[in-house]
Amino acid sequence: MLNQAHFNNVTIDDISVDRSIKDVFQNMRKEILGHPAGPQVQEAGEDILQAIVEDVIEACTSFRVGEDLIVPQRVFLISAKAT
Asked: Which listed site, 5, 9, 10, 39, has its alpha carbon 20 to 30 Å from 67?
């Protein structure tokens, strides 16, 4: 697509970093409330929010390292020059 849009010297770098999430329960709560669906979750009440937090943390057990979650974050960095 970039070549068709008259860009050249296109490079794509695959970058992976480990994201460390400490205080898992508190920070997962913030992640959920910061999601676009966060306001609806908050409106549903504290019990629903707590259940979602617990479900997400349980689903992330393979990322558990001690009391933290270490989650790989992968992105593609694309750079190009306009012609």
From this structure: 39
Query: How long is the chain?
Result: 83
Per DSSP (E only), the strands in 22-67 are 64-65
CA–CA gap between residue 58 and residue 17 (Å, rounded): 22
Q: How far apart are CA 82 and CA 63, in angstroms?
A: 41
What tokens does 64 get? 């558990």
CB 28 within 8 A of CB 56: yes
pLDDT digit string, tens, across residues 10-62: 999 999 999 999 999 999 999 999 999 999 999 999 999 999 999 999 999 99
pTM, rounded to two decimals: 0.69
